[in-house]
Amino acid sequence: MIVAENLRKTFPGRGKDKTPVIAVDDVGFTARDGEITGLLGPNGAGKTTTLRMLYTLMSPETGRVLVDGVDVAADPERVRRSLGVLPDARGVYKRLTARENIDYFGQLHGMGAQEIAARTAKLAAALQMEDFLDRATEGFSQGQRTKTAIARALVHDPRNVILDEPTNGLDVMTTRGLRGFLKDLRAEGRCVIFSSHIMQEVAALCDRIVVIAQGRVAAQGTPDELRAATGEPNLEDAFVKLIGSEEGLHA
Ligand SMILES: Nc1ncnc2c1ncn2[C@@H]1O[C@H](COP(=O)(O)OP(=O)(O)OP(=O)(O)O)[C@@H](O)[C@H]1O
């Protein structure tokens, strides 16, 4: 379970405009085990910055993050062991094959060769990676790179999974496969959080949606709760009302 409380992050102004950018402002939500939680918001809303604070890459100016009850600021090492992260920059190692990328992360987590091999086989099957598992990742398509980065993030079998725009740039079939994979993670009782700027993406998968606009939580709840709160029977209309624009409605 991941709990975010009162998170705030400001970046100094750069270039001519020295006005600081308030990227995240008092963001709070709870992502439960056995559920998929979606952070939904238009470009620049603060999703990536929020996720970076959840996965220990950035410290919040105010507020705190608890992962399975452990304060991220107090024990980041322990938190990292229980997290699997797909960052916005996928960053797979080009000279290594997909399998070697996964293997390397397994070794960093202190796993043994047999354990890594078994886990790689399971993930490669679930993500349909067998065709390209032993190819060097240089020249991989976006979908192949994303799958490699997801498998690598999950090699140590983490309880909590954070994915930054996992379906960005993927074709329809790959997206469908990935949705099935995320549902399997949920069925295994894991806590899954992902960000997206596409309403349909979030509506198709999420048990709870946190709508973020201009660094703040505009609304949060189940799809039904969001519809009820806005008085809009259609989630798409509810989303437009909540963020005040039609950005992100079209896949
Ligand atoms: N390192 C940084 N330095 C300065 N400004 C930043 C930095 N990182 C993010 N920002 C700003 O903070 C705001 C939120 O950015 P963030 O990347 O979190 O949004 P996002 O919701 O993930 O957007 P997108 O969907 O476009 O990826 C934006 O205005 C962005 O320009």
Describe what this molecule looks like in 3D:
The protein is α/β, with parallel strands linked by helices and 251 residues long. The chain has two domains: 1-82 and 159-251, P-loop containing nucleotide triphosphate hydrolases (Rossmann fold); 90-157, no CATH class. 37% of the residues lie in helices and 24% in strands. It is built from nine helices and ten strands. It has helices spanning 47-54, 76-81, 98-108, 113-126, 142-154, 172-187, 199-205, 223-230, 235-243, and strands spanning 2-11, 21-31, 35-40, 62-67, 70-71, 83-86, 160-163, 191-196, 208-213, 216-221. The strands form two sheets. The chain has a six-stranded mixed beta sheet with strand order 6-7-8-3-9-10, with helices on both faces. Strands 2-1-4-5 form a four-stranded antiparallel beta sheet. Strand 4 and strand 5 form a beta hairpin. The radius of gyration is 18 Å and the shape is globular. The two termini are 29 Å apart. It binds adenosine-5'-triphosphate. Adenosine-5'-triphosphate binds at residues 11, 21, 23, 41, 43-49, 197.
Which secondary structure elements does this structure contain, and how are they paired or packed?
Layout: E1 2-11, E2 21-31, E3 35-40, H1 47-54, E4 62-67, E5 70-71, H2 76-81, E6 83-86, H3 98-108, H4 113-126, H5 142-154, E7 160-163, H6 172-187, E8 191-196, H7 199-205, E9 208-213, E10 216-221, H8 223-230, H9 235-243
Parallel strand pairs: 3-8, 3-9, 6-7, 7-8
Antiparallel strand pairs: 1-2, 1-4, 4-5, 9-10
Helix pairs in contact: 3-4, 3-5, 8-9
